[in-house]
Amino acid sequence: IPGEVVIDFNFRFSTESTPEALKARVAAVLDRHGLEYSIDWTLGGEPFLTPVGTLTEALGAAIHDETGLTTELSTTGGTSDGRFIAKHCPQVMEFGPINASIHKIDEHVIAADVERLKNIYRRLLEKVLA
C-alpha cells in the first residue's frame, strides 16, 4: 500500500454547478473514507451559457442564407475555449467546420467548407454590423 498518492484531475462542469459545490463534494468523499489529504485547486475557466439574442439569431440567419439549413443551439462538441472570454462578452458562440479528424494525426478540413465558412462569417458580420 503506497504511503502517498498524487492525483491530477480536471472537472468540466456545467452552469448548474459551482466550483465551491464541487470542492465540497470532493471533500465529502475523501472525509467519508477518513483520508488525510491536501488539495491545491486551480480554476482554469468557468462554464457559460449564451442566451438567445442578437448574435445567435444573426449566426443562425447567416448559416441559413448560405446553406439553407435551420440551426439548433447546442452545447455538444467538447470543452469550449469560449470560457476564457465569456465574462468579458455578453454573447459567446463557437462555430466552425465539421471536423471528423479533430485532435488526430493529419487533422484536416474539406477545402470547400472553408469557402462556405468564409461566406457565413461575412454574412454574420453584415447582419451584426448593419
Q: Can you describe what's shown?
A:
With 130 residues, this protein is mostly helical. It folds into two domains: 1-45, no CATH class; 54-129, DNA polymerase, domain 1. Helix content is 36%, strand content 0%. The chain is elongated.
* Largest sheet features: none
**Helix content range:** 25-40%
Please name the CATH architecture of the largest domain: Orthogonal Bundle
Number of domains: 2
Radius of gyration: 21 Å
* Count of DSSP-assigned helices: 3
The arrangement of helices and strands along the chain is: HHH
CATH topology of the largest domain: DNA polymerase, domain 1
What coarse outline follows from CA principal-axis ratios?
elongated
What is the highest CATH level, the class of the largest domain?
A: Mainly Alpha
Briefly note the structural class of the backbone.
Answer: mainly alpha
Count of beta strands: 0
For the structure shown, list the relevant keywords.
DNA polymerase, domain 1; mainly alpha; 3 helices; 130 residues; 2 domains
Topology:
Blueprint: H1 19-32, H2 54-67, H3 111-129
